[in-house]
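Ligand: WTA. Inputs:
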Amino acid sequence: MSDKSRSAEQSGSSEAQIAVHWKEEKYFKPPQSFIEQANLSDPDVRERFGERNFPDCFREYADLLDWSKPYTEVLDTGKPPFWKWFADGELNACHNCVDRHLGKYRNKAALIFVSEPEDDAPVAMTYQELYVRVNEMAALLRDYCGLKAGDRVTLHLPMTLDLPITMLACARLGVVHSQVFGGFSGQSCGQRIEDSGSRYLITADAYWRSGKLIDHKEKADIAVKTAEEAGQKVDKVLIWQRYPGKNSSPTAMVEGRDVIINDLLKDYAGQRVEPVAMNAEAPLFLMYSSGTTGKPKGCQHRTGGYLAYVAGTSKYIEDIHPEDTYWCMADIGWITGHSYIVYGPLALAATSVIYEGTPTFPDARRPWRIAERLGVNIFHTSPTAVRALRRLDPEGPAQSPQQFKHMTTVGEPIEPEAWRWYYHQIGKDQAVIVDTWWQTETGGFLCSTIPALDDMKPGSAGPALPGIYPVIFDENGAEVARGSGRAGNICIRNPWPGIMQTIWGDDQRFVDTYYKRYCRNTDSTDWRDWPYMAGDGAMQAEDGYYRILGRVDDVINVSGHRLGTKEIESACLTVADVAEAAVVPVVDEIKGRVPDVYVSLGSDAGDLEDIKSRIIKACDDMIGKIARPRQIHIVPDMPKTRSGKIMRRVLAAISNGADTGDVTTLANPDVVEEIQNMVQGENASKSSADMPDDIRNFGNND
Ligand code: WTA
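Predicted complex:
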């Protein structure tokens, strides 16, 4: 057992408190050409958004919006941690993203859709056309479905223009949209329909992915069945056709339940719907995310604070101007797409690109052809995409015609080597990079460099954003000295407008998950007593830059997508013959982390290969293909403590070829060696010195 793990165990501590092996990287300066045109180059911003001016500093973001009724109070802390932002103000998110731009930008492209088949020309949709489509869809939702402000509706849509049109149509009416990532299975979608209490499911017949026209409609049938079994009746399934007038799905329509949106819309041609003035605190949308338990959390985001925060950060950190062509390659089904494809950019009258397919289809130079054709100058993607593009075509981007002024990375830590490749090859040393750290819960960015003001440091997200005051706590709640380079749990000391309101229908879980651990006084209405716990390990270097080390809970980050290990375990346990299941993260060169599954079987289990394929199918069906295990290990027994708890930490070490530490106190130490031989073979017991912290500490909370 290494000294480090021994001392961590002796102090009863866990998570990322152990010192990190980390080398300081050299800085890169933002190019002068960028600084000259930047939205934010005034160094006073940090003072303006300093604690002395909190919370009024956030008026600056709120003032980027049109309010139908002005707010008077910025922050109401009356019922912590249920903060209220701009609470007596009223506004409409759709008006702010569409209508108000018509004066100046009526015929400027709001969205440009790029379909995966490369022979199809891109489709530019002007603000005027977006306005028309959104109004017609809003009329349909209101008059055909009878939806009104406060109702929830589940969307399970792929990456086409129909998705932002539907979201904005909901927002126009104050209907709360809950978009489920298109790649999630029908069952996941059904679970979210039930949790949100949606009576309508809005889906699509098909979409292109990696050269195939995928049948998406089939998932709707499973979703409806799952929701109904859980007690939520779905009245209608509304279907957008990938090719209007043509049915692209082989799955049969269900009489009386399924309707084609493109047909229905003809009845609403030319209709206009007044945007409904919503209270700033009215929920705008739900975005489900994985957490520690098997049940996904419906992160509920408010209208006013959220929109103000994503508009402000899109302007200052993404540096979006109306003249820019901005392309974020994420999926709108994740928070990144909501905040930084749809709401933030459109609030600023930007031109935002929506690409349907895989970045590497038909080859790894597709993104650069798209960027050149559309004149994209701001590019936004994940470390996984950067790593995949690098592996496929390391020299390609430098020889390709893209020319960016600004590039973003989001969703996972990016290793300095991949960062430098992104900078030199894709950015050609001309683009500023922001490494943005944030979460579904936080609505928008928390840490990043300000692109024209701060030097970039590969591998570090950067300082906190204006108006965000982080703190790192150790296990015992003591503050880790600032700039000390010691790791701990990163928290945000203050509320900010983008923070979620609650977990849909579960206030207690909201408090318990994010605030319980470090709350100093539950009776206090002073925000200073309520730090928000992000669930990530982090350290702050001397220069004030934060380096994010990864999750400290049971969440694993696969290609920047959050998956709950407990959700995967539940899927495995639905397979007959599986008695116990444990899921652990494994380091993957491209995807960051991937799940490995360990199962033990009941007596009389059948054919092992058959069981493995049923486990894979269960993960595909219950969650989606992104949750597919890398490997499934069928073990004679799980390593357990004397009290019978599965030691996931030991399994994580084995899967990653690392030292398992001292296992003599386990109830069944022999099984560890047996599993180790099975999984690691001859290479057993490498040192754990260079293990990433999230893996080294995985399962310590069990
Ligand atoms: C991780 C995605 C390092 C982190 C916006 C966080 C990051 C989780 C970064 C949230 C980054 C996100 N550097 N890690 N720049 N950005 N993460 O909710 O672990 O899908 O807690 O939101 O991704 O994932 P989520």
